[in-house]
Amino acid sequence: MTTQLWLNVTPAHLRTVGETLATHPEIAFAAAVTGPSNLVASGVFRTPADLYDYVDQHIGPLPGIQSMETAPTLREVKRLAPALP
């Protein structure tokens, strides 16, 4: 179950939270971004219960997180783009 996570983290904790997420085996990708959320991650979970446990036990305790949105991927139609000429 691939899930996108958008986090709004206080600027003072952005680097710490991003680097922490990058060490979690559930997280396949993490990056600082601009916009309403300043940190985005892609996670892979076995079940919705695993996602809930991850949010509760691994995301919740991190300092500086103001809000988070998740979006489980229901169907993936394309992952990699072809090389540009």
Provide the descriptors you would attach to this structure in a database record.
85 residues; alpha+beta; globular
Secondary structure elements and pairings:
Blueprint: E1 2-9, H1 14-23, E2 27-32, E3 39-44, H2 48-59, E4 65-72
Antiparallel strand pairs: 1-3, 1-4, 2-3
Can you characterise this structure?
The chain has 85 residues and is an alpha+beta fold. The chain has two helices and four strands, in the order E-H-E-E-H-E. Strands 2-3-1-4 form a four-stranded antiparallel β-sheet, covered by helices on one side. Strand 2 (27-32) and strand 3 (39-44) form a beta hairpin. The chain is globular, with a radius of gyration of 14 Å. The N and C termini lie far apart (33 Å). The relative contact order is 0.30. The model has no long low-confidence stretch (mean pLDDT 93).
Helix content: 25-40%
| Strands, count | 4
Q: If strands are numbered along the chain, what order do they take across the biggest sheet?
A: 2-3-1-4
- Please tell me the overall pLDDT: 93
Strand content: 25-35%
- Helix and strand element order: EHEEHE
Low-confidence stretches: none
CA-based gyration radius:
14 Å
Shape: globular
Give the N-terminus to C-terminus distance in angstroms: 33 Å
Instruction: Please describe the biggest sheet, giving its number of strands, its sense, and whether it closes into a barrel.
Output: 4 strands, antiparallel
